[in-house]
Design a protein that fits this description.
Blueprint lengths: L3 H22 L2 H25 L22 H7 L11 H34 L13 H32 L6 H9 L4 H44 L10 H4 L5
Amino acid sequence: MPDQQQFLDMALNLSKYHREHEKFYAQNPLQQAIALHQASRVLLTLADRWQVVEAKTSPPPGSFPYLGCEDLNETAAIQQSGVLFLEGEGEPPEIAHLKRDLGSMAEDFGEGGQWLANAMQSAWQAALPLLQVPALAGVHGERHRIIVNNWQWAHLQSLISMVLKRVLEIVEKVDFAPSAIRADLAGPRVFPEYLYAAAELVNRAADMASESASLTHDNERRWRVFHQRVQQVLAEYPNRSGASEDARQTPES
């Protein structure tokens, strides 16, 4: 059974290395949110175009197959993402890339959320023995709040994954071949509505990713306060074997 000093050693290690790890995750979700907003903008730009444009009944007879579709293309989408509909082609490769990237992000968020939830379950249990250290009474709130913040981020990641998977299911309702788009615009004109729905969900996923950064930022001071207090407590054991450099330092060093 680990003794009190060993539990303190583990707490010191966690408060050092996981604080550094979270500095990365204070910015990475914001970068992911930007990527999601960029994907949403493509969908919204196309939806806005297709909601009002008068579709051609057919491509120009005998036309060069790489002519741009004057009715379906939106120059803003071409400039921002490279999405270009051509008369002799089907789904633009950039649309396929967008769907692939959303799928990859969905998987990453799902795996990350599951891993973090499991880690926080373990961290919650690992914090229990520290309650037996009276000298840490003043920082138990900080340590448990860190766990709760990270657990909330784990759930947000799982929710983002679920949302992005539904986005892909919605987008799959749209056939991005020019002939199929023109048929829809000449009839039910439902493709723009699917794209609006997908964009709305992508934007919500981006918002949740941004929210997670604030949770990580909230941990920074808590990690620092907790780490310093554990250092102080461990300083009372100067002759213990295997004392770490962190434990031998005072907060002012």
